[in-house]
Design brief:
Helix content: 10-25%
Order of helices and strands: EHHEEEEH
Number of strands: 5
Distance between the termini: 35 Å
Largest sheet: 5 strands, antiparallel
Length: 130
């Protein structure tokens, strides 16, 4: 994990689809980009910043999001998210995050992820299966 240093940047891009709308997700009644969809894009940008540098079998999982949704985005508009790694504390990674559409900054905040052993995490989850 010594390759994980502040300054790493990841991005993720999408076009707002019907399934991304607040009205479709259930996070509101309007046909605008839903906050849950924006948060997913933000998480993907953080994954893209670091996962390719992790040891075999390791991955990251989201543990905290503190993000403001600043502006609406309509169906069909391009959106992108950017995450910059700003702190590494053992297995905990902290990112500054932003999201944009073709016109405005639509989101900003911080996001934390933890580096985990993927197979151990899956085993723990599967042990809870009914």
């Amino acid at each position: 994990m010594s390759d994980l240093q502040p300054g790493l940047v990841g991005e993720a891009h999408a076009v707002v689809q019907q399934a991304d709308l607040a009205s479709a997700i259930g996070s509101g009644r309007l046909d605008v980009y839903g906050t849950p969809a924006m948060l997913g894009l933000i998480e993907l940008s953080a994954v893209n910043a670091v996962d390719h540098l992790l040891p075999e079998g390791s991955t990251t999982v989201g543990t905290r999001l503190d993000v403001k949704h600043l502006a609406p985005s309509p169906l069909g508009i391009a959106v992108r998210a950017r995450a910059e790694l700003i702190a590494v504390d053992g297995r905990r990674l902290t990112f500054n995050v932003e999201a944009f559409d073709a016109v405005d900054k639509i989101g900003e905040g911080t996001h934390e992820r933890a580096v985990v052993d993927g197979s151990r995490l899956l085993a723990r989850a599967n042990a809870k299966a009914p």
